[in-house]
Amino acid sequence: MNKEELLELLKKKGSSDSIINAFREVKREDFVPEHLIGYAYEDIALPVMEGSTLSQPSTVAFMLNLLDAKNNQKILEIGSGSGYALALLASINPNGKIYGMEILKELAVSSKNYLGDRKNVEIIMRDGSKGLEEFAPYDRILISAACPEVPRHLLPQLKEDGILVAAVNQSIFQIKKEKGETTEQEFPGFAFVPLKK
Length: 197
Fold this sequence. Notes:
With about 200 residues, the protein is α/β, with parallel strands linked by helices. The protein is about 25% helix and about 30% strand. The chain has one domain: Rossmann fold, CATH 3.40.50. The radius of gyration is 15 Å and the shape is globular.
């Protein structure tokens, strides 16, 4: 599959224009190991390093659709890995601020190298399981590695009208915060690498 075919697939699956444009702009081959570049636009997860993977594009697009990120927002991604989703978010939200948390040093360093020219992205190398309180609250929180349970303890770090999207075991959860209340939706049937602590 080439890039255009992948974009066509994401359109068919209902991705928004801003997400399609981000996938068009960001080169997935920059985030995969050299020997796997030929598979960069296949709709499959690819190994990166230290047991981490780059999620399949349609899963990333699905999570970004649920996240509904807009420009000028403050966004936190936990388990930012090689930085692919951060690059997509930076394309969708060029005037906002995006924080990526990654516990594995090699991944954090390599993603800093890839994203160095994107001034609105900051990568913090530390355990993200408790969020990033010093820059809270956030408009959006994305958790890209699988949590053992729904991370409701992070909701205080989410703004009113904010959205949290999290991989939990083999499901994706979307939690919306509105008028002091939260609503949750579960979308099962996915595969994720567990969140490391």
